[in-house]
Amino acid sequence: MYIIVGGGGDVGYYLTRYLLQQGHEILLLEKENRRFQTLSEELGQAVLKGDACEARTMEEAGARRADAVIAVTGEDEDNLVICQMAKKRFNVGRTIARLNNPKHEELFQRLGIDVTVSPTKAILSLIESELPGQRFVLLMNLKRAGLEIIQIVVPSLSPVVGKPLSQINLPRRSNLALIIRGEEPIIPSADVTIEANDEIYALVNREGEEELRRTFGNA
């Protein structure tokens, strides 16, 4: 694949180096002269000096033949511009943007960015999963399908404790995928009885998430 990476900070550098090791054709764009010189010493011809937000730079980088453009600058506005230009002007099939502020995620999705990656959100999810008493954790967003994979730890006072799944009114917008009880994985079926502290993994859309919280007593 031919991949253009916009932004030569630490993220852009390590991403480019990894993708080169995987055998991809990569071009990293960096506008700041001193940083460009440093990157050139490390990555050679895989680095081009220029602003990825500018159409002229993207043209020089060969964006029209790129399979993907990845924008990982430290500014969300720049990452949005890079990806939108790649999509609309150069017809790049796949755009990926780094999100520094998770609040911008919905905006990026509405404006057609294929994939957003938020290190802040990922760290927060990890912290939440380790907090005592935290019983509802978002594990993954499947943006194209409008779905989420979530983890629920059933509270001891949940109204569903002691009930088989056949007697629990689960939201139509949810699908239980797995139950972990201690060290034992259990495939959900109608006769499986829910116990306190069961870890339940479910696939839901955004509307079904709140319903599932209420069903298991996590709201």
Automatic annotation (TrEMBL):
Task: Give UniProt keywords alphabetically.
Answer: Ion transport, NAD, Potassium, Potassium transport, Transport
Q: Identify a single GO molecular function assigned to this protein.
A: potassium ion transmembrane transporter activity
Where does the RCK C-terminal domain lie? 137-218
Any stretches that span the bilayer, and where are they?
none
For this record, the Gene Ontology CC terms, alphabetical, are: plasma membrane
List, for all copies, the residue spans of the domain called RCK N-terminal.
Answer: 1-119
- Name of the protein in its database record: Trk system potassium uptake protein TrkA
Please name the source species.
Dictyobacter aurantiacus
